[in-house]
Amino acid sequence: MSETGTGKQPVVTPARVVIALCLLAPFVAMLWVGSYAKVDPLLAGIPFFYWYQMLWVLLSTALTVVAYKLWQRDQRARRGREGGEER
């Protein structure tokens, strides 16, 4: 019942763990309201509560791009390994 002898690739890889963390981080940050439900510090007169959330819009975009690029690389590597094993 071991997958090492069947030639199947593992489903959970380090790259996929990083992808999951990149996609999960914004949700955790926004759902943990107690961490940012405050006024100070102000940024250009904007309370922390608002600018922290706007910062996460940018961070979420960057993390999603990173996750997408990692996913593309993982898929290319999988296709390469599958093609190499069949020959």
Summarize the structure.
By secondary structure, the chain is mainly alpha-helical. The chain has helices at residues 14-31, 48-86.
Describe this structure in words.
Helix content is 66%, strand content 0%. Helix 1 packs antiparallel against helix 2. With 87 residues, it is an all-alpha fold.
Primary descriptors:
mainly alpha, 87 residues
| End-to-end Cα distance | 25 Å
State the helicity in percent bands.
Answer: 55-70%
Mean pLDDT: 87
Number of strands: 0
Radius of gyration: 20 Å
What's the helix count?
2
Proportion of strand residues: under 5%
- How would the global form be characterised? elongated
- Structural class comes to mainly alpha
Secondary-structure element series: HH
What is the fold's blueprint, element by element?
Blueprint: H1 14-31, H2 48-86
Helix pairs in contact: 1-2
